[in-house]
Design brief:
Blueprint: H1 2-15, H2 23-42, H3 58-69, E1 72-73, H4 85-96, H5 112-126, E2 136-139, H6 141-153, E3 159-164, H7 170-176, E4 180-185, E5 187-188, E6 195-196, E7 200-201, H8 204-210, E8 215-221, H9 233-246, E9 249-253, E10 279-284, H10 285-289, E11 297-300, H11 303-314, H12 322-337, H13 345-366, E12 370-373, E13 379-383, H14 401-412, E14 415-416, E15 435-439, H15 444-457
Parallel strand pairs: 1-14, 3-4, 3-8, 6-12, 8-9, 9-10
Antiparallel strand pairs: 2-11, 5-7, 10-11, 12-13, 13-15
Helix pairs in contact: 4-12, 5-12, 6-7, 6-11, 13-15
Amino acid sequence: MMLKTCRSVCSLQQRFSCLLTSPSRQQQYNRTLIAAFSTKGMDKFDLPKRLQGSTPSVWNEYIALAMQYKPLNLGQGFPDDAAPEYVTNSLADIAKDENPLLHQYTRGNGHVRLVQALSKLYSGLIGREVNPLTDILVTSGAYEALYSTIMGHVDVGDEVIIIEPFFDCYEPMVKMANGIPRFIPLKLSEKDGPISSADWVLDEAELEKLFNEKTKMIILNTPHNPTGKVFHRKELELIADLCRKWNVLCVSDEVYEWLVFDGVEHIRICTLPGMWDRTITIGSAGKTFSVTGWKIGWAYGPQQLIRNLQMVHQNCVYTCPTPMQEGVARSFEVELARLGKPESYFLSLPRELQPKRDFMAKFLSEAGMRPTIPEGGYFMVADWTPLEAKLNLESEPDKYRDYKFTKWMTKNMGLQGIPPSAFYSEPNKHLGEDFVRYCFIKKQENLNKAAELLKNWK
């Protein structure tokens, strides 16, 4: 073996001896020699099988696009205006607080002051006692709450039902847990006139067929991103009936729980008969207080379900930043004192957003698009295809037309949206190609700029 290796090296040296006459050629030779001996060895460090097939998220791609072309960014879902003063001031006060422990590790499963505030809030909202120490886990954003839930409950071969379009981390997280995602799309009812998010509906028979003995979990998102759909009681009762029938866990992603419009009621599925014992509900301080950069989320549910999440959390994140958790706790304490009153941020924020929602629907319609009016959340999807004749989509090499549209608009119009096909499984991506997603939790001046851009283009 040693002799064979020496002969291989000598052969390579003879083959490239003509390249050794300059430093640059010497470097080329060295790289070639290293590659010859290391390519096979590097296979050992490829992605594990459970991660193979993973691709960069739409956010990585579109953040890079925004940095390059500097468009008016209505794509990403974060506010560009100031958060409430009492929220941001809480963090400033904590930085100057005399208690040095506010800058050290706190309880791994959640800062005590925060879980107590969450317990008081949700115990009142769902009409049952939520134990702060056993029924709540504080996580690094709702993102980690989803991760800990899926990794903590999904086993090899378990089937997980995902409603499309979906927040794009659901599918890869299920696959990382070696589960099998099963998809069902919301379908837009054909109708004339304005479209509401309530017009995006599940096919009941199709949903029933997905449930079987292998079904471990269904992921529900209400209010829904990106359509803005708020699942109504009848729809939730159907899902609950199937969960009880097949002994299935419901993961309810309710990060937009306070952002509902037009008098629509947000119903927490864990309050339906027989659902508390089989529901994990996920929330977000970023969405609740308009501080997405704080990355504090939580999951609540019965102890026997939450303990699985705690096991993942303790071996992954372990604990979240103490100052952020303390700041969220203090902010909740302010809101708990005025819950249900007009001055509550939970009520004032949707009041401020509804005119912005209506303004965006108006300027998108005037530009020729066909928007879906959301009942909740702060996103709006719109059918852009009436504009297709005015676009040169062939200039964009992407596979899906919504990617072509959003990139063309970013580069040529200076207005960025997000392609909804990113929120569908591969077989169903065509269902999102006619749409674009915009975010309306933005300063009015930026919404005005977007309206002006589209008006001038038209």
